[in-house]
Amino acid sequence: MIEEIGRTTEGDLIINVGPQHPATHGVLHLVITLNGETIKKVEPHLGYIHRSIEKMCESLSYRQFIYVTSRMDYLSSHINNHGCALCVEKGLQIEVPQRAQHIRVIMDELTRIASHELWWGAMAMDLGAFTPFFHAFRERETITDIMEKTCGARLTMNYMVPGGVMAELHPDFQKDVKQFIQLYKSKFEEYNELVTGNVIFQNRMKSVGILSKEDAISYGCTGPVGRASGVTCDIRKLYPYDIYNKVDFDEITETEGDSFARYVVRLKEMQQSIRIIEQLLDNIPEGDYQAKTKAVLKLPKGEFYQRVETARGELGVYIVSEGGTTPYRIKFRSPGFSNLSALEHMVKGLKIGDLVAAMGSLDLVIPDIDR
Amino acid sequence: MLNEDLKLKLTGILPLISFEEGGEWLNVIVPSEELKSFVLRLRSGPDLMMDYLFCLTCVDWKTHFTIVYHFSSTRYRHNIVVKAKIDRTNPEIETVSDIWRTAEMLEREVYDLFGVKFLHHPDLRRLIMPDDWEGWPLRKDFEDPVNMIRL
Amino acid sequence: MGVIEKMDKADFPGKIHETAGGGIVLSKLDDVINWARSNSLWPLTFATSCCGIEMMSVASAKYDFSRFGFEVARATPRQADVIIIAGTIVNKMAPVLRRLYDQMADPKYVIAMGACAISGGPFFYNTYSVVKGADHVIPVDVYIPGCPPRPEALLHALITLQGKIKAGLTREQIKESSYLNP
């Protein structure tokens, strides 16, 4: 586990960052080769939170495995569950009622805002500013209170089932979300004042960790990381699911590909999410919240792939089924895995402080990478 | 491009391939020796331009393995699934990490969990299991009486 | 004049004797040390997975744990008193956890937060890489159930730990007293 930590023959220093480190956002172990303070090689070591989810899902039924996936990328847990439920529905050809589709999309967008809030607070904390952390959690607590009234849990809400959602919305839902949107719009200027316009922050983020468009495609980077390099890869626009094709929103892309571009893309995405919620909130149709399905689900023999856009990028759920009640093989294509593989290319030749800024702008959640 | 046009074009590149029916995308089955030249044509062919590899995985069918590649094109927005069957007792296949850089870590993961050797890979070693772990966990015949508690 | 017994757990331990010109407090040194230690525990930032987010929520403004003295979260185990194991422990991480615990200076306390740290949690059956409970690796004082536990549950656990320290019942203190009375 500990390799040649120390000095190499050329006089370079090899050090460990992690697995227990406040800036790695989880248990990521990086072995860095340094020449003075300049980085020559970064090697990620994974597996410190590998919970063998793919093997475990081979013995769980199609209704049960969805709940394990909300622990994979726990900051966008609704979106993970949504992707798995959509894949099972694709196999069984179930038609989801319109009301359930609206509710699913609203919950997804609220989750996306909560995830970006936490990213913003944690990233500012990595760079040394502690105040934005508390501001971000204030907004996040409002969202988790709304979720808790409807779904029953704050973080791993197991709310999506194949066929719709698990329970009816709380009667106060629309009022609470409208209050949240008012609060959020008034606070958004604070974020720009506190962090975005700050000269120290801009100097630490601009031209740090540049990823060109060809490299982003070759490394398979999706989500805000890919969009900041100019790749149009928003799954909600390219392969829309549920009612994303009926909602009006912009896909935010930037061209510079540095950490500041990734930051700006995520901030603007939060505003687009608010736009989507506003369009849907007053127009939730009446109807069932869950389609009628059998108690025990059996997918027909074949392979099914479903893509969804989580807060980090494209999540792919690939189910190989042999006709039984449990899947034969499940593979989760995780967005963080590919984003992490671009890290070494981004930070070669920079200093350690730039490594922290680049990692923060990638928004990695390590259980998503290790599964 | 539609599935039928893709079928014609791909059969023109390599006549040995076969197609699998069902599924929303075109499923192409390629013999494992021809894989590297086939995917090189997928990447560089002017009408295909599959520059985005978004999933690389392996399925254990108890008599053989199947390595599954999912490709997409950022220009033309078509998707293809390529499958290659390999032998279970001595699983080896050519690497594609010199064409798509994302395959470096994806192939390491398949090696770690299934034991498939990727020839000419720059750095093939275990990724997520501890370095001294023995056995290939995701194979169907993997037994671990110490750690696994069966339900 | 009179003797005032100690009022409740939050006050300074000991008996107050009212005399002219002030008063005298009589107490046991062990009680005073335990009182001081329990009100200024510094946690180690050790969060492996989802429970870490609930721990961060406890650190933030709504469920503040700096009211209890936990505010100074250190990143290095040499300066920390309590390690809150928030998240699943897997086979590859277990030696790291053991090394962190060994690097902490005495007296040290351990809280196991969440179902994964208590017994492996949802990953108990059919997994080859999860350690079924953090107490296979290090000795634990307080267990918090939940997946993830609410922030109020973590606060309740912190208060329980403080009560355990004041009563002299944590593993450290039992171990020490067994050295003195074998």
Question: What report would you give on this structure?
Answer:
- The complex is a heterotrimer of chains A (371), B (151) and C (182).
- Chain A has one domain (49-370): Cytochrome-c3 Hydrogenase, chain B.
- Helix content of chain A is 47%, strand content 13%.
- Chain A has helices spanning 53-57, 65-69, 77-92, 98-126, 131-151, 173-196, 199-205, 213-218, 223-228, 235-238, 259-281, 335-341, 343-347, 352-362, 366-370; strands spanning 6-7, 13-17, 29-35, 38-45, 160-161, 164-165, 302-309, 314-321, 329-333.
- The longest helix of chain A has 29 residues, at 98-126.
- Chain B is of the alpha/beta class and 151 residues long.
- Chain B is built from 3 helices and 7 strands, in the order αββαββββαβ.
- Chain B has helices spanning 3-13, 35-44, 103-114; strands at residues 18-20, 26-31, 52-60, 64-72, 79-87, 92-94, 117-119.
- In chain B, the strands form 2 sheets. A 5-stranded mixed β-sheet of chain B has the order 1-2-5-4-3, covered by helices on one side. A two-stranded parallel ribbon of chain B has the order 6-7.
- Chain C has helices spanning 29-38, 51-59, 94-103, 115-119, 151-167, 171-180; strands at residues 3-4, 15-19, 22-26, 43-44, 82-86, 109-113, 142-144.
- In chain C, the strands form 2 sheets. Chain C has a 4-stranded parallel β-sheet.
- Chains in contact: A-B, A-C, B-C.
- Chain A binds chain B through residues 1, 46-47, 50, 52, 54-55, 59, 215, 217-220, 222, 231-233, 238, 302-305, 314, 316, 318, 320, 328-329, 331, 333, 337-338, 340-341, 345, 370, and chain B through 22-25, 27, 51-55, 57, 59-60, 68, 70, 74, 77, 100-102, 104-106, 109, 127-131, 137-138, 151.
